[in-house]
Write a structure and sequence with these properties.
Rossmann fold; 9-stranded mixed β-sheet; alpha/beta; 20 helices; 8-stranded parallel beta barrel; TIM Barrel
Length: 506
């Protein structure tokens, strides 16, 4: 049995694959003194994104790891197979990295196995020094299928992969279900490859499931320190080492404690770990990436996140109720509505802006931040105001504060509207679920027969991780709205890919 620690690869989902040189040194120093056989440093990827160096592993990181780890410790990297279109893509990724690596793991959806086997053959011949390993995803979707295991084993027969690891991507499986799965595996004929396991901790069972897999003779076991990893995380490396009778005898020194203290500080800030929303999502067949996006990216409280996944709506077919109540808004065709973002520049020159715009134009506030920035001006606003409240925004807004504004109405998602909300004005209800507020605004504007929408105060703050996520999501919303025929112009400086109009030029 071997331990594969993937702290830097799976943990990157919480750090955007950015780890300091200080942390890397501390990690490598600890791992080099522990009974860990394989270290997975990160991903190999050519994907255009803003992820850090552990998603796009470079030679300097690989070289540092090679120099600091024991000679008998192997270095792996992972490739998302869905990013690979042709064999030449793999050749390119591996061309200058292979001499630092001992193996590659491929995260594969079962439906892509045949494609993988076609593409991998010529690549294996070229990179004979590397072991080729498969992480087969979504175990909770197929483990009950009695024919699945035998079919999979037959597909990989004589294909010379080194390890086939079974991944509980949703973190949904219980110890009883893992027992059933590994009974099926153990009853199969002698295999030509090793068996691995990778369990997520949505239900708080990753460590227990890992121990069961080990007891069934699993060859390679995935863990991470402090369980850091996508969604709720993974089985904890240090706990598995402590529980295993043979392994804990090989642990000595203070390096492990130093590393764990560092990760404890990270956990306080990043807050991974099992929880009711993650468990609920897992057992209901909802991808942990979905629930992670709701909690981490959309900043929803657990109750709202559960509500969101309990009654999902089709994002391609969003409907609105009570459109008739917005008749005045709908008839106002001579004035293009203005969507106000949460940019802090509104506080600086919002008064000048409001003085310059058409007083008949409806102002749409894209969320609570835009609302509070507008209120901070402490001026009387003549334009009619529409508030967008997507997801759990109502929990941030006291309805009483609307008395300070010329409020015309609220556009909100039906399932998040508080039952005791006593709002006597106009309320436009959407059946969407935690939709990006810009997308919700644009869809509502289109539904009210507008063809144009002006933007203002979408400053962006790429230095903030949370804001960067929102920025990317908003850019996608703008692209979607453009495809639907909405013409958009920015009236202030913006990170969005929009045409601009300067209000101060006549």
């Amino acid at each position: 049995m071997q331990i594969l620690d993937c702290t830097l690869r799976d943990g990157g989902y919480y750090t955007d694959w950015n780890f300091s040189n200080h942390f890397l040194n501390k990690y490598l120093k600890a791992v080099s003194k522990l009974p860990i056989s394989i270290v997975e440093l990160g991903y190999l990827s050519n994907k255009e994104d803003q992820n850090g160096p552990f998603f796009h592993l470079e030679k300097n990181i690989l070289s540092k790891a090679r120099s600091q780890l024991r000679k008998n410790q192997k270095i792996f990297a992972m490739i998302n197979f869905k990013e690979i279109k042709k064999s030449k893509n793999l050749n390119y990724l591996l061309s200058d990295k292979s001499k630092y690596l001992d193996g590659i793991r491929f995260a594969i959806d079962p439906k892509d196995i045949d494609k993988f086997l076609r593409l991998i053959s010529p690549v294996k011949k070229k990179f004979k020094n590397l072991s080729f390993n498969v992480n087969l995803m979504y175990a909770s979707k197929w483990y009950k299928d009695e024919n699945f295991i035998s079919t999979i084993f037959q597909k990989f027969k004589n294909k010379k992969i080194d390890t086939l690891a079974f991944v509980d991507s949703y973190g949904a499986l219980t110890p009883d279900e893992i027992t059933d799965l590994f009974k099926q595996i153990s009853e199969s004929k002698k295999l030509q490859f090793k068996i691995g396991c990778h369990f997520h901790n949505n239900c708080g069972l990753a460590l227990a499931n890992t121990i069961i897999a080990k007891n069934f003779g699993c060859d390679i076991i995935d863990t991470t320190f402090r369980g850091i990893g996508r969604g709720a995380g993974n089985a904890e490396t240090e706990l598995f080492l402590a529980i295993d009778k043979l392994l804990r005898k090989k642990i000595s020194g203070f390096e492990l404690t130093n590393l764990l203290e560092e990760l404890d500080e990270m956990k306080l800030q990043l807050k991974w770990g099992s929880s009711f929303p993650y468990a609920f999502a897992a057992r209901n067949g909802v991808s942990q990436s979905v629930i992670m996006d709701l909690i981490q990216k959309k900043r929803m409280d657990p109750g709202s996140a559960i509500k969101a996944i309990s009654k999902p709506a089709d994002p391609k077919n969003i409907s609105f109720n009570r459109l008739k109540g917005f008749s005045k808004f709908r008839r106002n065709k001579k004035s293009t509505p203005i969507l106000i973002g949460g940019g802090s520049s509104l506080k600086n020159y919002g008064e000048f802006f409001l003085d310059k715009i058409d007083k008949k134009a409806f102002i749409i506030l894209s969320g609570s931040r835009a609302l509070f920035n507008l209120l901070s001006l402490n001026i009387k606003i003549k334009n009619p105001i529409i508030q967008i409240a997507s997801g759990s925004e109502f929990k941030k807004i006291n309805i009483k504060i609307f008395k300070k504004l010329n409020l015309y109405g609220i556009i909100a998602e039906k399932q998040f509207i508080p039952k005791n909300m006593n709002f006597k004005g106009k309320l436009l209800e959407s059946d969407s679920v935690a939709l990006n507020p810009v997308l919700l605004s644009g869809l509502a504007v289109l539904k009210n027969n507008f063809k144009k929408l002006n933007f203002a105060f979408f400053d962006g703050n790429p230095q903030s991780k949370k804001d960067r996520i929102v920025m990317e999501e908003t850019e996608e919303a703008v692209k979607d709205l453009s495809k639907k025929g909405l013409k958009m112009v920015s009236l202030t400086k913006s990170y969005l890919p929009l045409k601009t109009k300067n209000l101060w030029l006549n």
